[in-house]
Specification:
This protein is an alpha+beta fold. The chain has 13 helices and 4 strands. It binds zinc ion.
Length: 254
Amino acid sequence: MTWPTTTRKTAHGSRRSSTGSAAAPSKIGACDTEVEKYSHIPEIELFNEIKKFFRSFQTAETEYRIDVMEEVAHLLDDRIQGHIAMDVMGSVNMGVSQQSSDIDFVLYLRCEHDCFDGVGKCPHLIKAREMIRDVLPDTYEFQILDCINLSLVEKSIQEKNYECSATQRFVAYRSMCRPINYRVIAPIEDMLNQDMLFRKELEGSVQSYLKIFSSSSPHMMSLKKYEARLGAIGIKLPESIRTKIRQHINGEGG
Ligand SMILES: [Zn+2]
């Protein structure tokens, strides 16, 4: 196997909008357009505005990593029962990856057990992690920050279960992160978008978690680091973005 693959092309990256949802294949149609118009809870809107600013200076390394992750997902998709997808976080999500950056992501799998506790002892997760290590070039360090059982999310959406923590996390990741192998996620996100009130209710339930996350020191340090990277290429954060970052790390809404 050689990296990069011949299928890599710039159009791949430009297809994606800042919301992440736009990475959906065109066949998704109307439901996906609705996602674009839908406004999220203020904490998520604020994060996405900051992300949009950083992404407007997206590095080539970021695009390259997205392509590598798409390739990894495609390679593993046939080998993993029930398919595999991801939502990337961190520097790849913000568009500021450098050669030394790790790849942080949430893994989406299907599991016949009622796995809900993220990076726990699920045998499918352990196997998937090994397979990713096998196919991902050694130069890339990666971290699986969470794992979501898509079968459980599907079941909870059908049952309108507001209290399913996997579904709450799924909604938060889908509103903020960058999808890989979106065709696997799309049908579930469409199911969710059939009932926008339900989706918003789920977003509301992660609000307090988001406040803690955005004011956590690793997250603040990352934002400082990203700012420094732009500074290094001569780009100063405009006051408006500075204010948004301040509001964001204080756990405020937009
Ligand atoms: Zn499991």
